[in-house]
Amino acid sequence: MNLLAFDIGGTHIKYGFVNDAGKVGETWVADTEGKRGADFVLARLVELAGPLVEQYRPDGIAVSTLGLIDPLTGFVTAAAEAIPGYVGTSPLQVLDDAFSLPVTVENDVNCVALAEGWRGSAQGVGNYIALTVGTGIGGGIVIDHRLYRGHRAAAGEWGYMRIADKLWEDHASMRGLICAAKAATGQTLDGHAIFAGYDGGDPVLTAVVQEWLTLLATGIANLIYAINPQRVVIGGGITSRGARFHEEIDSRITECLLPDFRGMSEIALASAGNHAGMIGAARNWFTAKRLF
After folding, report:
1. Residues 117 and 125: beta-carbon distance below 8 Å
2. What is the distance between the alpha carbons of residues 114 and 283, in angstroms, rounded to a whole number?
3. Reading across the β-sheet that carries 103-107, which strands appear in turn?
4. E strand or H helix at 254, and its extent?
5. Helix locations, 186-236, DSSP H
6. Distances in whole angstroms, Cα of residue 217 to Cα of each of 198, 211, 232, 236
7. CA 233 to CA 168: how far, in whole Å?
8. What is the DSSP letter of 202?
9. How many whole angstroms from its chain centre is CA 61?
10. φ and ψ at 15, to 5 degrees?
11. pLDDT by position in tens, the chain (length 292)
């Protein structure tokens, strides 16, 4: 089976084909132009899908999107500020009306979690959490091989946790790191420059990064206490540091945990790739249709 999959982000819409083995075929990218509003974005979605549906006749359409999503109706219920007017709309209904194909819609970070379980670093693991560390911090929870959405599909919004009276994602995200570096140095540095200084032994940036790592690790340790996952998968641009970041965050999490919890949850870096949103959207479609 072959699905047309969309990953709707604040900046870009990634789309292409994903088959029932999780293999991604031809893909494309379009600007979201979210500031033009929900009606424009939804119309754009139909415009992009139209010729592909006509030419390739996919078995269905799978959508990953920003915002909290009602999994049954596909309605966007909250947290979609990047697209004015998006809350209260249903991409599922719009696509179903346009093409009369089976459609599923799921939150983007939940889709990333599903992708990691299907084709990434949580393959074969029944209980895991996946975090994305970017502008904010979000994630998904999988329990007994099933996505856990919580009441009103708002589970995994742990970026809003407060640690030491700090909103976690405001300080432990990449955005938080960049803000902390600017406050300490007076310069606007991107992540690459910050870690170049850290790796080079710059004392100011070393202090900034060390504090940031501790705050990130503290939040993850709290999630380990609360959920007791077999594996924690961490994604986002920071993972480009590879084994070095893995060692840094793993050791820092170990320091944060009580002895009985150390080593109980494995720490892994995300590996599903740049098309994780599309892959996870497809996985959600196949699961919803009871094909997996």
Report:
1. yes
2. 7
3. 24-31, 12-19, 2-8, 60-65, 103-107
4. helix 243-256
5. 191-199, 203-227
6. 18, 10, 12, 15
7. 18
8. -
9. 20
10. -155, 155
11. 999 999 999 999 999 999 999 999 999 999 999 999 999 999 999 999 999 999 999 999 999 999 999 999 999 999 888 999 999 999 999 999 999 999 999 999 999 999 999 999 999 999 999 999 999 999 999 999 999 999 999 999 999 999 989 999 999 999 999 999 999 999 999 999 999 999 999 999 999 999 999 999 999 999 999 999 999 999 999 999 999 999 999 999 999 999 999 999 999 999 999 999 999 999 999 999 887 7
Q: What are 79's two structure tokens? A: 């947290």
Encode burial over 210-246: b for 16+ CB neighbours within 10 A, e otherwise. eebbbbbbbbbbbbbeebebebbbbbbebbebeeebe
Among candidates 166, 46, 162, which has minimal Cα distance to 101? Answer: 46
If one counts every other C-beta atom within 10 angstroms of the C-beta of residue 48, the result is: 16
At position 107, the amino acid (one-letter code) is N
User: Do the Cβ atoms of 175 and 136 come closer than 8 Å?
Assistant: yes
Distance CA 280, CA 233 (A): 14
Q: What is the pTM of this model?
A: 0.95
Residue 290 is encoded by which pair of tokens?
């009871």
CA distances from 46 to 89, 96, 97, 119, 224 (A): 14, 10, 10, 28, 41
221 and 263 Cβ atoms separated by less than 8 Å: no
Q: What are the angstrom distances between the C-alpha of 194 and each of 44, 162, 178, 184? A: 38, 25, 8, 11
At 243, which helix (H) or strand (E)? helix 243-256
